[in-house]
Amino acid sequence: MTPRVTAGARGGRRAAAALSGARGFALAAHRLESARSLDEVVQTAAALAAEMLRARLAATCRIEHETMRVLHHEPASDPRYGWRLLTTYRAEDRPALRRLIRERESWVAHAQDVTGQPTEPGAEGAGDPVEVAQLLEVGAASSLGAPIVVNGAVWGEIFALRGPDGGLFTTDDVATAEVLAALVAGAIARVDLEEQIRHLVADDPLTGLANRRVADNAAEAALESGEEVCIVMCDVDGLKRVNDELGHDVGDDLLRSVADVMRRAVERLPGSTAARLGGDEFCLVTVGQHRAEVAEVMLSTTLDFPLPHGAAISYGLASTAITGEISARHLFRRADIAQYRVKRARARARQSAVPIADPAVTAERVVVAGAAAITAAQSGVVPRLCALAAATTETLGGSAWAVLMQRDGTASAVARGGSPADGDHEQLVTQVVHGAWLVEIGASPHAAQGPAVTTALHALAAVAIEGAS
């Protein structure tokens, strides 16, 4: 009697036949070539291993620091063999894995013989006892592993497993797995290289943000969406002073701090793009966000995460809700004009600020501003003193401040701050000494002076220093 063959069985045989021999490898190479990301390569590799090896379970595994973990498996879930996905595997615990890593040697293990009778760990021809014991534990028949070698190093493993009715893996199956692993390795190397090229083309090397090209493309795509588009143009007040006084390495750190502020804004505005355009110029492109929300996020983010060394971010916003239909180039230009106006207004306000002349009122304002700044500062004496100096200098209408440490009668600057956007204006300097620390606080010539203000400054310095320790 001829056994009945179902349509599903015929389809499975055709699929298996299609992925066998030279034609199978050619089709596998084509499918891997179509993968555009590492995730796609990993998923495709597991699917190919399941088909080409006629496996009950196949997986693409990553090996790092002699530890293996499963990245993807086919089928997506199998309660009988899910154990393979629940843990990581150390080479020190699995001899077959150790040989695969160190000698790039494939392995095969069998929990039954060719007649279907169970084997015991250690039996001749059964393979590594640890792998055999694992097969017996889950009721599987045979397993294999083949190394994925990328750029001369073992990157991972192709793993496959057959159930009791699937037969044993043969030397031909191991050879198939090794060729497939080589094809997968080539695909991994390709997508890794493509990612490196994308990184070089699209990312700013100093900050890791997108570059001008990406920002331009993001703006063009956003405008095509028909939704409200906002562009925020930013620059850094005080970068030149930091470069001149503290060095360009500190200036680079300052630019990275600005990038961190921009990333935090992006987190609060889904779908937005932050970029460094060059020098101290940054931008944010948003789509589908109301301009009021964008303005609120920028304000709160810059307040929550102040820049070090007394630097600050000036920014201006332009929105298609105001401009109407406009090109990306002109929207950038409008945001840049808005940013320039804000920067100039801030500088004029600093220079023309005249604190209240009453010393008692001025002292009260100094205490309020200084205490708030100390509380919000990061831990440590220097951040707390910098925050105090910046806040009290601004309250007193000054333009610059400094934190110094005294050693052997010599005071060395630890940090300086201020915003010389329009050039420094005449100011008075009050020195506050507490132990080894010297804080220079700038004040407008019009600021109220006297014991009340001086006492307030000394008290705040003591709080900043003693509280930090």
Write a structural description:
It comes from Cellulomonas gelida. GO terms for molecular function: diguanylate cyclase activity. This is GGDEF domain-containing protein. This protein has a 6-stranded antiparallel beta sheet with strand order 3-2-1-6-5-4, sandwiched between helices. The protein has a 4-stranded antiparallel beta sheet with strand order 8-9-7-10. It is 48% helix and 22% strand. Helix 8 packs antiparallel against helix 9 and helix 13 packs antiparallel against helix 14. The radius of gyration is 33 Å and the shape is elongated. It has 3 domains: 193 residues, 2-Layer Sandwich (Beta-Lactamase), CATH 3.30.450; 140 residues, Reverse transcriptase/Diguanylate cyclase domain (Alpha-Beta Plaits, 2-Layer Sandwich); 110 residues, no CATH class. Strand 1 and strand 2 form a beta hairpin. The chain is an alpha+beta fold and 469 residues long.
